[in-house]
Amino acid sequence: MYQYIQYEEQQGRATITMNRPEVYNALNQGIKEELLQAFKAAENNPDIRVVVLAGAGNAFCSGQDLKSAQEEMKGKSYAEAIRTYYNPLILQMRNMPKPIIARIQGIAAGAGCSLALACDVLVASEEAILSELFVGVGLVMDSGSTYFLPRMIGSLKAFELASLGTQVQSAVALELGLVNKVVSEESLDKAVQTYVEGYMNAPSTTIGLIKQMLQKSANMCLEEVLELEAVYQEKAAATEDHQEGIKAFMEKRDPKFKGK
Questions:
Q1: Which of 138, 145, 139, 78 is nearest to 118 (CA)?
Q2: Full-model pTM
Q3: What would the pLDDT profile of 136-194 be if each residue is shown by its tens digit?
Q4: How much is the pLDDT for 73?
Q5: Residue 68 CB burial class (10 angstroms; 0-12, 13-18, ≥19)
Q6: Which residues pair with 224 in a beta bridge?
Q7: Got the DSSP string for 165-219?
């Protein structure tokens, strides 16, 4: 079904692996289309409660495949290509009500960095590097980085990283707030699995509501946020998991959430 990615569903977890290791998982037209299909499949499967995005081989994603772009861009403008392939993918990732965990090893550069920043939790190896290297080829950031980067680290630092194309080592990325956790290469899968298990045992509908609320609140005033909280709290209170949470609290036991 897929040529450029691997897609696996197992015990409530969907793993999407960019699978072009020979070019550090660079993004050609095919892989972008398949990523969008895979994220839609994960969202539409009610049994999937958490998604992991990874890269095969020694890199997460090196960004746009510049070689294939020369052929793919014939007859198309840059704006058209971004609107057709990148924007729907980023919007799918941000709008789906399921947490996405980025498993980052090696380089996450350009649009590959944007893909990482579009995830909800970023777990990086000690050798990982994040870089908004668009400026190195005379381009501006795309695929959402202009939105994500300043909200994560502030406008001053975002301008520095974007305008200089700085390579950010994982330890520095952790200090800046670009990633959630940094571990050794050997511990990367274990660290990702810890997050997976946390979300597998969480009230999934509530997690989806939290994701939506945080995204919407970025452009709201306080009064609007307070109303948003009231509306979404009503939605959360109507879930089976809320009732289970109350019951477990009264019975002094751990809740057994079903994601409903």
A1: 145
A2: 0.93
A3: 889 899 999 999 999 999 999 999 999 999 999 999 999 999 999 999 999 999 999 99
A4: 66
A5: middle
A6: none
A7: T-EEEHHHHHHHTS-SEEE-GGGHHHHHHHHHHHHHTS-HHHHHHHHHHHHHHTT
State residue 80's pLDDT score: 87
CA dihedral 218, 223, 227, 229 (to 10 degrees): 50
Q: Which of 197, 209, 214 is nearest to 241 (CA)?
A: 209
Rounded Cα distance, 7 and 121, in Å: 19
Write down the residue that tokens 């919407």 correspond to.
Answer: 216
- Tens of pLDDT, residue by residue over 205-243, are 999 999 999 999 988 999 999 999 999 999 999 998 898
Q: Both tokens of residue 222?
A: 């306080």
Pick from 76, 108, 49, 94: nearest CA to 213: 94
Task: Give every CB contact of residue 258 below 8 A, 6+ residues apart in sequence.
Answer: 240, 241, 244
Given a contact cutoff of 8 angstroms between Cβ atoms, the answer to whether 32 and 89 are in contact is yes
3-state secondary structure of 3: coil
Q: How is residue 114 written in tokens?
A: 């944007």
